[in-house]
């Protein structure tokens, strides 16, 4: 089909030089694809390089401590990706002798690997004609063919997958998949694409109908919930603080944080001081409380907005075992906590 040939030709001329495009090793491809989920290339590239320096093969990654993997992942967000990455590495090493499955059907069974990632690995590493569908692909196909089915609907997911599978070049599946993703990333961009230089502009339905800015269609997400987080940053006279590991399931599972007090709304200084007077870490201590930030820091996640205050609590001694402030950067923490640690400097 001319559509596929045009994209592959465009890709051969315009593709960016990226390290994972210089290999067909499934470990490297898998690692890059997991890192680039929900992440732009310019942000993900340094993480990819750091992971390969620390874990040059699936065996080193499998033998690592989860806390070290999470620490290296810090700042990328969506930490379940890192936990699944580590779990899958251990499975591949312990159950598959370090060899990745060679087909889409088997790859998709691995933890953290969905349709898109399995298709990418199968096509790039093993030349299987399995079409990838990501945000870039949705955008290119919806605009070129004028499809207004919502891309985040059950119908849309099936429709676009079938269309991509029909279009894929069976002889060059890796080139096709990478070309359509790259085309969406640097040519058919979300905002203000330069359609005058697009090699598909003559037959693009969205361009003909002046609907470029209307496609793809997406069902609006549910409004994010507001939560009010108050982190207690203890500082003792002997230079220690308290970090707690989150054990409950969620995006920050197994990461470390300062003791958290969640409230139903924002609190001013006097109200919050009364609120924590009987906190288990303070009930036997005299303490000096102060603001770090009087105005809440708003940390936006996909499903919730965290209105966050850090409260500095100076005490003579800690009521529980603490960690040295000098070692605080050794712990894997959410980016919200990491940013505070960098700015506060203790």
What does this structure look like?
Belongs to the Nth/MutY family. Its EC number is 3.2.2.31. It catalyses: Hydrolyzes free adenine bases from 7,8-dihydro-8-oxoguanine:adenine mismatched double-stranded DNA, leaving an apurinic site. Pfam families: HHH, HhH-GPD, NUDIX_4. Its cofactor is [4Fe-4S] cluster. The protein is of the alpha+beta class and 346 residues long. The chain folds into two domains: 213 residues, Hypothetical protein, domain 2 (Endonuclease III, domain 1), CATH 1.10.340.30; 120 residues, Nucleoside Triphosphate Pyrophosphohydrolase. The chain is built from 14 helices and nine strands. The strands form three sheets. Strands 1, 5, 6, 7 and 8 form a five-stranded mixed sheet that branches. A two-stranded antiparallel sheet has the order 2-9. Strand 7 and strand 8 form a beta hairpin. The model has no long low-confidence stretch (mean pLDDT 93).
In the CATH hierarchy, what is the architecture of the largest domain at level 2? Orthogonal Bundle
- Assign the CATH topology of the largest domain: Endonuclease III, domain 1
Indicate the radius of gyration in whole angstroms: 24 Å
Uncertain runs are none
Multimeric state: single chain
User: What fraction, in percent, of the residue positions are helical?
Assistant: 40-55%
Keywords: 4Fe-4S, DNA damage, DNA repair, Glycosidase, Hydrolase, Iron, Iron-sulfur, Metal-binding
Family: Belongs to the Nth/MutY family.
Protein name: Adenine DNA glycosylase
Organism: Seonamhaeicola sediminis
